[in-house]
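stage 2 :: seqdesign
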């Protein structure tokens, strides 16, 4: 029996070795070997000679996820231990239909905005979802609304971040477009906050990763079909930036003012001393939460830096082959007018 097949037979929580061996039709020696192999590969396997074996409660193993899926998103499903990046695994997964999903326990080369490192310790939720065809208008905002609603707390920050109630970063979005495929990457700190500027969802509410994943997929499927006006309205209801002083770094320079809302194309409206500006591409900075020091440059962003900047292009921009929707917006190779 291969380890992945054995994984699907493991129960949630502790079970005696003998019980698991009977269930799998294996010897005790085989069960131990497979269990230790799964743990070495990064899966959350509980192991103790005196207690037995099982999976950590709330983990998103297939046997706990697939029976609960009610829509098209999440099938087929690959659940992995340690990977370089869920985006890279999904990119290399050839011939899969829309809705294919990759979830990993840990990433060694996760990416955030501007190609920076995205620290990904175990205990959190890291996923990549495949969509096909032309992207729906304001796709990053649709993903953000679904994520915020599934998390059940916190606020959104244009164009890519989910912030905790106290302004630290809970999660982020990375969307990459290639040909007729869209790779929707999402990371959420559930149990562990890797940096002082990050937060973990379990600081604010009791939540299991499997429940968060299933809820997100169901909500996203609904939001993908929603009218644009409702998407914009709901985003702004969940936006923690509106009415606050912001400092936006753009390719043309720094814009300071008060965030007032979104345009129908997903741009950020900022009221400045010189009048309203619409930001299509920029890094939005908010005042840091009290007693939190921003991470040093180059430390990575690991869902951290909730008080720092969120780079991206306006979520309403068209997605073309070879572009990257980095944390909620499109990042293009060519230069073009980015602000109006």
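stage 2 :: out
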């Amino acid at each position: 029996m291969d380890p992945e097949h054995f994984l699907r037979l493991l129960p949630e929580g502790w079970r005696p070795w003998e019980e698991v061996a009977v269930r799998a039709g294996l010897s005790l020696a085989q069960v131990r070997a497979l269990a230790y192999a799964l743990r070495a590969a990064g899966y959350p396997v509980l192991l103790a000679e005196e207690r037995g074996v099982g999976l950590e409660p709330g983990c998103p193993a297939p046997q706990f996820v697939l029976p609960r899926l009610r829509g098209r998103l999440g099938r087929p499903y690959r659940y992995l231990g340690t990977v370089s990046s869920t985006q890279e695994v999904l990119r290399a997964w050839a011939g899969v239909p829309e809705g294919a999903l990759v979830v990993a326990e840990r990433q060694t080369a996760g990416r955030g905005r501007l190609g920076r490192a995205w620290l990904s310790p175990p205990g959190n939720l890291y996923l990549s979802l495949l969509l096909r065809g032309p992207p729906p208008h304001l796709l990053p905002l649709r993903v953000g609304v679904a994520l915020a609603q599934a998390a059940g707390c916190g606020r959104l920050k244009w164009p890519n971040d989910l912030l905790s109630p106290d302004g630290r970063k809970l999660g982020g979005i990375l969307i990459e477009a290639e040909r007729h495929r869209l790779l929707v990457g999402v990371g959420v700190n559930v149990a562990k906050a890797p940096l002082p500027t990050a937060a973990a969802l379990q600081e604010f509410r009791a939540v299991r990763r499997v429940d968060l994943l299933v809820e997100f997929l169901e909500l996203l499927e609904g939001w993908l079909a929603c009218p644009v006006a409702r998407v914009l309205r709901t985003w702004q209801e969940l936006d923690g930036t509106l009415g606050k002083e912001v400092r936006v770094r753009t390719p043309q320079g720094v814009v300071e003012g008060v965030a007032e809302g979104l345009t129908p194309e997903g741009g950020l409206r900022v009221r400045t001393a010189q009048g309203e500006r619409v930001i299509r591409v920029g890094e939005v900075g908010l005042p840091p939460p009290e007693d939190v020091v921003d991470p040093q440059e180059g430390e990575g962003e690991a869902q951290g830096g909730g008080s720092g900047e969120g780079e991206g292009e306006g979520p309403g921009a068209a997605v073309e082959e070879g572009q990257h929707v980095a944390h909620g917006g499109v990042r293009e190779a060519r230069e073009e007018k980015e602000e109006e």
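stage 3 :: structure notes
- Residues 293-311, 316-340 have pLDDT under 50 and may be disordered.
- The helical segments are 3-7, 17-24, 28-40, 62-65, 86-92, 139-151, 209-224, 228-238.
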